Amino acid sequence: MGAHPHEDPHGQGPAARRETRKGHPKGSGSGHQHGHGPHGSAGHTHGVAADADRRWLGLALALITGFMAVEVVIGLLARSVALMADAAHMLTDAVAIVLALIAIRLAARPARGGFTYGLKRAEILSAQANGLSLLLLGGFLGYESVTRLMDPPEVNGAMVLATGLAGVAVNIAAAWCLSRANRSSLNVEGAFQHVLNDLYAFIGTAISGLVVLLTGFARADAIASLVVVALMLKAGLDLVRASGRILLEAAPAEVEPDEVGDRMVGHARVAEVHDLHVWQITSGEVSLSAHVLVAPDGDCHAVRQELETLLRAEYGITHTTLQVDHVRDNAVEWTPAPPADAGTDAAHCPAAHGPVHRAAAASPAG
Question: What angle is formed at CA 342 by the lines to CA 337 and CA 345, rounded to 5 degrees?
Answer without folding.
Answer: 125
